[in-house]
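User: Predict the complex with iron/sulfur cluster.
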Amino acid sequence: MTRTQPTSRGTSVCESQPPDPLGSLEVVPLGVRLDVPVVGCDAGSVRAKAAGTRVAMGESLVDGDAVAVAPADGRVLGVVQATLTNGRQVPAVSIEVLPTIDDNEDGAEPQLSLGVTPLPAAAAREAEDIAHWTSLMRQGGVWADRMVCPDLLGQFTQLARRSADTVVCNLVDDDAQLRLNAVLVQHGADLIAAAVGRLAKLLSARQPVFAIGQGWSAALRQPLEQAVGHINGRIVAVAEYYPQTAPALLLRALFRRPLRPGQSPVEKGVLLLDGAAAFSMGEFMVHRRAMLRVPLAVHDRVQGRTHYLLATVGMSIREVLNWLGIKAEGLVICAGHMLRQIELPADAVIAAAELQLQVMPMEPGSICGPCTRCWWCAEHCPMGVEPAWIAEAAHQEDPQQAERAGIGWCIECGICRSVCPSQLPLLLAIRRLKNA
Ligand code: SF4
Ligand code: SF4
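Assistant: Here is the predicted structure with iron/sulfur cluster placed in the model:
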């Protein structure tokens, strides 16, 4: 297995030695195929380029309002259905990756492209206008939809109609094994701060806020403090326990602004993004590179190791694991925190959905006992929900009872299920009722 550090590939993300070496950020090489998710339309209405069409890196793979940008030179294979790492099913355009021919005629072997491309010159012009940036982000494929960074493109679209007075960059890692935000700060604090500062300026927002963990070392804080100082931002340390990074809890901790689960932070006057989104937007805003690859953390529970990666949009989890020397067969793959119970197929596609993956051996299913009404689930729920009554409501198929038990405030953190001595499938019951 050959691994290449980003610096040796001429990229800009790891130019300095991290002061607090949590881990390096490695670039996963391109394979032979990418399934590029289509944003903005359903499978039936995707107008993809015809199969066999050659596309250049950065070129659109679809016509109309939908968005899918080729992360590498390739040939269109067709439209498929893909599972993202947040569990959502979306259409995707498959491309066969083709080598990029070097024009220098120096006899060198053709190189596979890196999945990073400059934006077209016309798109690179300055514009202090949020609607224009929304349009640029769509062209660049910059979007995110994960627990700690809710629908970024949706937040931007809302900002064209209403204002936000605060930009918050959430850099808290609530899982000690998966410190993706901290690693990104080590490698790109300047990019993160530049992006957040630019967003605050675009919105005419007050001093931008960077939420970090209370346990951050001085060495880890130092590059962030320096970068944030340049944009007159503010660093706020918050508790790092799970699920503190859920937007509803984070905004409550920072500003005492209540946010209903599922509600956009913009409705509370806040644009919220995480470190990974800010890092990618920094590359986009500072270096004019479309976001065609994403930061990723993979925790291998078999070997007890965590890998921090930059993977190209459209790669499968299987491909990433193969490169790490991990065979997906016989393993369970979960996205996000373990308690959230988001299990993924190995063929799930990497995009800007959940960026934390955990792999572990399959275990035999547990046997549930009866509900003893011990109320541990309610006592530990961070949102004041009564999960036992929701499980009862699921059993009775009674959505009104579920509402009365507070299902609308559930952030699907899974803590209730983890503390239940009877191991009742509370989270599954909640999801089933929510999706009914
Ligand atoms: S998953 Fe359980 S513990 Fe978490 S918010 Fe919902 S009801 Fe509360
Ligand atoms: S923790 Fe489990 S057993 Fe106890 S009340 Fe909640 S659902 Fe019932």
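Residues 381, 383, 385, 387, 410-416, 426-427, 430 surround iron/sulfur cluster (ligand 1) (CB under 6 Å).
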